[in-house]
Write a structure and sequence with these properties.
The protein is an alpha+beta fold and 579 residues long. Helices cover 29% and strands 21% of the residues. The chain has 15 helices and 18 strands. The strands form three sheets. Strands 7, 8, 9, 10, 11, 12, 13, 14, 15, 16, 17 and 18 form a twelve-stranded antiparallel sheet that branches. Strands 3-4-5-6 form a four-stranded antiparallel sheet, with no helix packed on it. Strands 1-2 form a two-stranded antiparallel ribbon. It starts with 5 loop residues before the first helix and ends in a 16-residue tail after the last strand. About 1% of the residues have low confidence.
Length: 579
C-alpha cells in the first residue's frame, strides 16, 4: 500500500472511518461504539462519537474530497443534535461540560469546510446550531487547553456571520498566552503539564486562529507562528527515525494525532523544516500506527495505545474518544498543487544527539533507532488516571514505552519500570511528588520522598548507550529498593531471554535488550502483570535489588538499552496495514 499522493491519504482516511457507518444513530447525531463508561454522560458520549471523526473529514472536504454519505449524515446530525425537540438532542451543556470539547471539532468544520457543514443547513438549523455553540460563553470551563475551544467556537460564529462573544474570545486568548513558558512551550493551564496537549491542542489551535485572524490580530498571530517555529525545533525530538513517537503523559489514546502539529504548520504556511522532511516524519508516523493492532474485528479503533488496553486509560476516554486520532489527516486540507503531495518523503533530519528542554521539564537523547526522554517528575493536581506512571518515571522511550500500575501491593502489579521502587511492609512506593527539580544541559536532578522518613536526591545522566542514575538516600527506615530498567517484550514469539546475577540483570528479545548493573545489589527480573506496558502486552523488567539501611547512602545504577534492528515500519514501498 502506498502513502504518497493526496489520493493515498484520502483513501486511508476513509478506510478508517467507513467502519463507523453502521454505528451512527438514526438521525446521525451520535455514534455508538461501545459500552464502557466515562466521567461524562451517555448523551455526551454519543456526541463525542459524532464529533471526533470530523477532525479527519473536515480537512478531507476542505481539500476537495467528496463523500456524500458522510456529508449527509453529518448535516443531519448537526440538525438533530442541536434540536431540543429531537430525541437525539445532545443535551443542554452545563458547567465544565464535555460538550464544549466536542464543539471544537464542529467549529473547525465551520471554519474550513463551511460549504459542507454550514451553508446547506436551512436558516432555522443554522440558528439552533449557532445558539447551541454560543453556550460555551455562558458556562465555566477548565483553565487549560479548553480555552481554545471557546476561541474556535467564537471564531467560527464570527466567520459565518452569527452572534459571537468578542470579549470572551480575546479573554480566552489572553489566558492561553499567560501559559507560555518559552521556546514554544506552554503549560496546559492550571494542570502545569507539558505533554501532547501542547502540540495537538494549544499549538494546533493557535495556528488555525492565525490562519483566519492575520489581518485583525496581526501581532498575536505573528507570535503564534514564531512560537510554532521554536516549538518544532524541540518537539521533533519526540519522534525517532522509524516513525514512532514518545509515549509520555496522558491522552495517549489519540495515537497518530501525535504528528498533527507538523500538519498544522503546513496548513498555516509555517515552515520549521523543509517540506520533504515533514512529509517523511508524517508518513513514517502514520505507517507505524497503521501496522499496530489498535483496531477491533470491525476495523474500529480501540481504547489503548499500541494495543487495546483499558488499564492505561483515563476517566474521560470513551469509545469514540480515540477518533481524535483523525487529526493525523489535517494535511488533506492542503490544495492539490501544494508541494507536500509531490515531495519525496525525506529521512529524519540530522540534529544533535541531546536536547535540553527546561521549559518542558525534559532532557531528550537520541540513540540508534530509539529516543529516550529523561524527566524529573512533574505532576498535575488533577488525577485523571495513572498520573504517576505517565509523568513520574525517570525515563520514557519510543521503543521501550512505559508501564502503568495495577496496584501498589506487589512489584509485578506495580510494574515500576524506570523507577526506584521501595518495598515496605508489603507495599510499593515510588516517586510520586517531586519537591525540587532541575533540567540541565547534560543531566536531570530531582529531590523526592516516596515514604515518610525517606528522602531521595536522584541525578540522571544520559550516556552513549543508556543512562546512569545516582541516588542519594537518607532514610530512617530499613527496607528494600529496586532500581528498574525498561520493560522488554516477553512473548514466546519474541524469543525472550534473561539473566540474573549479583549486580546485574538482563532482559532481551530478538529486537531489543535492557541491562541494569551496579557494583552492589542483586539482579532481579520482575515478571510484570500482562497488559501493563503501553507498547507490549507481556513484559519483564530487569532491576537491581538494594538493601536500604538507616542513615545516608548512595546508590549508583547504570541502565543500557539497545534496539538491535530497524523497526519494520521504515519508509518502504511495500508496507502493509495491520488489517
Amino acid at each position: 500500500m502506498r502513502l504518497e499522493s493526496k489520493k493515498d491519504f484520502q483513501a486511508l482516511m476513509l478506510s478508517l472511518l467507513n467502519p463507523l457507518k453502521p454505528h451512527y444513530t438514526a438521525e446521525g447525531a451520535g455514534v455508538s461504539l461501545g459500552v464502557t463508561s466515562t466521567n461524562y454522560d451517555e448523551k455526551a458520549i454519543l456526541m463525542e462519537g459524532f464529533s471526533r471523526p470530523l477532525w479527519g473529514l473536515v480537512p478531507f472536504w476542505a481539500g476537495g474530497g467528496k463523500e456524500p454519505w458522510f456529508e449527509a449524515v453529518c448535516r443531519r446530525g448537526l440538525a438533530a443534535g442541536t434540536d431540543p425537540e429531537n430525541p437525539e438532542f445532545w443535551g443542554a451543556p452545563g458547567e465544565y461540560d464535555q460538550r464544549f470539547i466536542e464543539m471544537g471539532a464542529i467549529a473547525f468544520g465551520m471554519l474550513l469546510a463551511g460549504d459542507v457543514l454550514w451553508e446547506p443547513l436551512d436558516s432555522e438549523e443554522k440558528r439552533r446550531l449557532a445558539a447551541y455553540l454560543y453556550t460555551i460563553n455562558e458556562h465555566q470551563i477548565p483553565c487549560c487547553n479548553w480555552l481554545l475551544f471557546r476561541v474556535l467556537v467564537n471564531l467560527a460564529l464570527k466567520e459565518n456571520g452569527m452572534p459571537y462573544d468578542r470579549e470572551r474570545l480575546f479573554e480566552a486568548l489572553d489566558l492561553t498566552e499567560s501559559f507560555y513558558l518559552g521556546s514554544g512551550w506552554y503549560r496546559d493551564g492550571d494542570s502545569n503539564q507539558k505533554d501532547y496537549y501542547v502540540s495537538v491542542a494549544i499549538q494546533f489551535y493557535s495556528l488555525i486562529y492565525a490562519m483566519f485572524m492575520e489581518d485583525e490580530d496581526k501581532e498575536r498571530c505573528g507570535r503564534f507562528r514564531e512560537r510554532a517555529l521554536l516549538f518544532a525545533k524541540e518537539f521533533i525530538y519526540w519522534f525517532d527515525g522509524d516513525g514512532e513517537a514518545l509515549p509520555f503523559g496522558r491522552s495517549l489514546i489519540y495515537r497518530f494525532a501525535q504528528a498533527a502539529f507538523f500538519e498544522a504548520c503546513l496548513l498555516a504556511d509555517v515552515a520549521p523544516f523543509p517540506v520533504p522532511v515533514m512529509k517523511g516524519l508524517i508518513v513514517r508516523h502514520i505507517k507505524y500506527w497503521m501496522q499496530q493492532p489498535v483496531f477491533d474485528r470491525e476495523g474500529i479503533l480501540t481504547i489503548g495505545y499500541a494495543y487495546p488496553n483499558l488499564v492505561m486509560a483515563e476517566k474521560y476516554n470513551g469509545p469514540g474518544s480515540v477518533y481524535w486520532s483523525m487529526m493525523a489527516f489535517t494535511v488533506l486540507a492542503l490544495p492539490d498543487k501544494h508541494p507536500f503531495w509531490t515531495a519525496e518523503a525525506a529521512e529524519f533530519p540530522k540534529v544533535p544527539d541531546i536536547c535540553s528542554m527546561p521549559e518542558a521539564d525534559m532532557l531528550v537523547r537520541r540513540y540508534r533507532h530509539h529516543v529516550t526522554a529523561y524527566v524529573p517528575g512533574v505532576y498535575s493536581p488533577n488525577g485523571h488516571g495513572q498520573i504517576v506512571a505517565k509523568y513520574g518515571k525517570f525515563a520514557y522511550d519510543t521503543k521501550f514505552g512505559f508501564s502503568v500500575a495495577k496496584s501498589c501491593y506487589e512489584l509485578y502489579e506495580n510494574c515500576p519500570d524506570s523507577m526506584l521502587a521501595f518495598f515496605i511492609d508489603g507495599y510499593v512506593y515510588v516517586r510520586r511528588i517531586c519537591e525540587e527539580r532541575a533540567v540541565r544541559e547534560d543531566s536531570v536532578w530531582s529531590r523526592w520522598s516516596p515514604y515518610p522518613g525517606i528522602e531521595v536526591e536522584t541525578t540522571i545522566i544520559p550516556t552513549e548507550n543508556g543512562h546512569k542514575r545516582i541516588h542519594k538516600i537518607e532514610s530512617t527506615v530499613k527496607c528494600e529498593a529496586y532500581d528498574c530498567g525498561f520493560s522488554v517484550g516477553a512473548k514466546l514469539s519474541e524469543a525472550f531471554a534473561s539473566r540474573e546475577e549479583k549486580g546485574f540483570c538482563l532482559a532481551e528479545n530478538k529486537r531489543m535488550k535492557c541491562a541494569v548493573s551496579s557494583a552492589e545489589g542483586e539482579g532481579v527480573l520482575i515478571t510484570a502483570d500482562p497488559n501493563t506496558n503501553v507498547l507490549y502486552s507481556k513484559t519483564r523488567i530487569p532491576s537491581i535489588k538494594y538493601k536500604i539501611q538507616k542513615g545516608v547512602q548512595t546508590l549508583c545504577t547504570e541502565i543500557t538499552a539497545e534496539v538491535k534492528e530497524e523497526a519494520l515500519t521504515r519508509l518502504v514501498k511495500d508496507w502493509k496495514p495491520y488489517w
